[in-house]
Every structure is written in C-alpha cells, then in structure tokens.
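dude i think i finally got it to work??
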Amino acid sequence: MSEHPLYAVVNYHQKHISGKTSSETTDDDDATYSNIHSPAPGKSAQENGDRVRGGHCVIYTKVSLPNQDGVKPTAPTSPDDQSARTAAEERSHWRVLVQPTVLLLLLSALLLIVIFTLSAFYALSKISYTKRLYALEKKNSEARQQTIHLQTELLEMNNTLVQSQSALRNSSEEKTLLLHELTHTQMNFTQLLRNCTAISRERTDIQTKLDSLNIEARRKCAFDWEYFNKKCYYISTDVKSWAGSRDACVTMGGHLAIIESEGEQTYIKSRMQRWQQYWIGLHYLSGWHWIDNTRPESGQFQSHNRWECMLIAKSSWTTEKCYSKWQYICESKAID
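look at this
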C-alpha cells in the first residue's frame, strides 16, 4: 500500500434528456454520474478537495441506479465494481429500512410498556380508591350509628334526670306517706297477731273436739272400720268375687254397702283412689236389688244390664261379671 491515504470525493448527478417520453429514454439518457478524484501525494485533503471542485484530475464513471419509473439498471462496466456497489447499496437500503423499523418497534414497545404501566397504576389506584371509599363509608355509617346511639342515651339520661328531679321534689311527701303507711301496717300486724292467737286457740279447741269425736267413733265401730252418719264402713285391701265379698262382710258382722243418699255416696268416693273400683251390695235378679232386697231409687245410676253385679268407682257406677275379683266395701250400723 502507498504511504499516503487515498481521498475520494464522489459527486452524484443525474442526467435527463428533455423532450423524451419514458418509453423513448435510453440508458444513456437517464444515468447517474460520479466524479472521483485521486489526490496527489503530499497535498492536504482540503487542497485536493478544492482541486476536485476546480475540475482537476477528474475521472468520470457511469453508475446506473434504479429510477422511480421501474427501469431496470444498466449493466455494470466492471463485475467487481458492480458487486461492491450492489453490496453497498443493499447495506444502505437495509439500513434505511431497518433503522426506522427498529426505532418504530422500540417506540411501540416503549409505548405499550407505558400504556400497561399506566393501566396497572390506574387499576391499582382505582382499587385503592374504592377501598378507601368503602372504608370511609363504613366509618361514616358507624359514626352515624354511634351518633344516634349517643343521642338516644342522652335523651334517656335527660328523661332520667327529669324523673329524678320530680322524684326528689316528691320525696318528702312520699316519706310522710310511707311513715303513715308504716304506722298503719304495724297496727294491722298487731291485730293479725291477736287474730292468729285467737285462731290458734279455736284450732286447739276444734282438734280437741275432733279427737273426742274420733274416740267416740272408734267406740261405735269395730277396729279398722270408719264412722260416718251413724254407720260404720270397712274398705277392704284384698280382692274377692261379688259372692266372696258378700260372705266376708257377713263374717265381719256387716253386709256389702247399701248407698241410700248422695252424702253417703260422696263420703264413700272420698275414701277411694281415682283408679280403684269396689263391690257394693247391688246385683241384678229379675231387676236390680240391694242386698237387703230393696230396690234402688229411680235415676240413682244408669246401667245397660250387661253384667249382673255392680261396682262403684270414683266417677261412676259400672256393672261387671260377678265372678271377677275386686276390692269391696262393707257396711254396718254403729253402736249407740
């Protein structure tokens, strides 16, 4: 290589022939020319450039470039020069196409990132705003409720205060009334004590008389028999048939009970339990007869004559088979 660098000034200009149509234009009519100057050794680039501009040592080379009318490029003057120029043109063409595209893609990506960031920021801001708004509404609602509650309490306290003031004004009058009531109560209590003492004495006298009557009744009735209205009654604890009950009463000196009045029936039922039933001296033999062959009063009981022997219960009378075994009630006259 030469010790001096080679400087080249390339000036492109295009020659057009006026008055010709595009179909009549030849390769020589529409061509691009370049001026290449080879500087002399020992001269500066500025001086060489001035000589190029002055037209010294100029080499003209015809360079064909694609025009806008779609005309095919002319054949290169030299294969090596044509390949180099084609590569340079392709690189320049790709640079021209790729650089804006890359720049546009970068700008688009940056714009998408900005849009996504702003959208995310907006969404987060909206969520945060919604949460804060909900929290504020909740606090506002709680504050309103507390205010209503405090107002209610204040109203109740005011009412209580008014009542207390009224009660305080009336306390002296109530105190006087209470003293009068206390005095009256003490007097009533004293009178009640006196009445209680008198009632206790009467109770003692009644119990004494009742004990005397019981002693007298025991004297009028046999052991385990009960006295009522000049009669003695025995209420059995064992069970027998109607005929067996009749014979047991006869053995003890009596007979099966003959109920002659409402008072006598009430007394007998008072000595019975709710679920108990007892044989009495009423049976069916060509009609209902008591054991002493007397007939019962009309309407004294109701019967459909299903069975021939009569039981008395707490609530009613009922017929039953005579051989059934039940408890029984005996009756005898009391000793005068």
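Residues 12 and 34 are 5 Å apart (CA to CA).
im so relieved honestly
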